[in-house]
Amino acid sequence: MRLALFSIVLLVCSVYVTQGFEDTTLEDDDFAEFEQFDADDDDVAITDQEYGEDDVPVKPKSQPKEPVPSNVEPEDELLVEDEDNEFEHFQDPEEFEGFQDTAPKSSEQPKITISKVPVVIRPRWDAYWLEGILCCLLTTYALAYAIGRAKNTSIAANFLKLHKPLLEDNFTLVGETGLEEVGRSEERGWSRDAEHCFTMWCSGRQCCEGMLLTLKLIKRQDLVHVLLNAVRPSQDTLQLRVELGKDDSDPFVLCIAQKKVATRLSKEMQDLSMFCPERRPGDKHGLPATLSVMSECAEATGGILDSRVTAALHQYHKYVQYIHVSDKYCGPKQVEEQTVTKPPETEKLVLVSLTLGPDGGGDEVRPLLLLVFYLLDKIKRLRLSKEALVKCEKRRQKAAEVWMRGAHAARQELAAQKREEKRKQEKEKILAEDDPEKQRRWELKEQKRQQKRKAPKMKQLKVKAM
């Protein structure tokens, strides 16, 4: 009896405890969604993977479903997500809001028209016209270089073939070991300095220390220069530089040149501008009118221009650019910006420039070379009178004094610049210090120096008492 009462009391207490912990806010319809999922799970068919091929799947008995009301819209129906479909968000209308409103209403797909392009098998050369022009220009330049170089080489070889016997008759040594394209390697001939410039040294003759021949031809290997030469024609030239000994000539300066060339030389050459400031026409000396004469001493001009020289110049004056004889040759004038501290070094030279014919030096060169050799012998034998020598020496002393004064002025200018730089450095150093007394003393010292510099210089004379 006691056991039955105890069981009844325990059952009542458990009922009260269960009601106390129960959530009264939940309603019966809150779990209706989960009940629908449970009902759908019961309807899932058993696949062939769970049973064999011979086994017949048995459909479980499902409870009858409640009918769905007709007034429920499709949007309110529950959507079951498929995890395997990763592009399902493209089908969601809420993902692209407003897109369907802006899209065109016509459901027709745009038509794509594919044009038929013909297949070109052959290359179109007209598309490479620029490259073709460049290739043609390069080929033309290369051909011009080869042809011009060969032409200049043949002119130099022809000149050496025609006039080397004359040079060997007057000099012991003619030329250096030549190149293969100019002459045979065992012979002596031209030395190629450039594609258009050849030089040859000759020595071993009286009345001179040696002679340097420079053959300057047209730059036929350069296509651009060839085109410019067609506009402004130029000619091949032969330049002779003869070095005289100390006792091979008296001191004088003489130049015979074409009029245009004489004007240019008088402005550029230092010795001509200093010793021969006057240019006289060639008519007054029995020369053609196209030539001009610049001479320091009239006696030297009369001694050089004898009948033989005058006749040769009358006949070949168009091939002679200039004949320059000088014992104080120092080259072109120095630039004014350059500081001259000492007189330039001078040489005794005979400079001759000849113009060659179209064939690069033919029959006209030999008489002119003979004229140069005759002038060397004439200069060696020429002796000026005492009066002429005295005048020439005075001019040279005066020129030396001008050079010395110029050098002294240049040295003074350099010294003044150094003093000025030193004074600036001292001033900057004083101003950088914080001692005002030291700055004041330096300013007083500078004022006294300026006053002493501006004061007139007085010379004090002492008079002896009677």
TrEMBL record:
One of its GO terms (cellular component) is rough endoplasmic reticulum membrane. It is a single-pass type I membrane protein. One of its GO terms (biological process) is endoplasmic reticulum calcium ion homeostasis. Residues 1-20 form the signal peptide. It is found in: Rough endoplasmic reticulum membrane. Residues 37-74, 413-466 are annotated as: Disordered. Pfam families: CCDC47. Its main location: endoplasmic reticulum. One of its GO terms (molecular function) is calcium ion binding. Residues 450-466 have a biased composition (Basic residues). Residues 416-449 have a biased composition (Basic and acidic residues). Keywords: Membrane, Signal, Transmembrane, Transmembrane helix. Residues 37-55 have a biased composition (Acidic residues). PANTHER family: ADIPOCYTE-SPECIFIC PROTEIN 4-RELATED, PAT COMPLEX SUBUNIT CCDC47. Belongs to the CCDC47 family. This is PAT complex subunit CCDC47. It comes from Pieris macdunnoughi. The lineage of its organism: Eukaryota, Metazoa, Ecdysozoa, Arthropoda, Hexapoda.
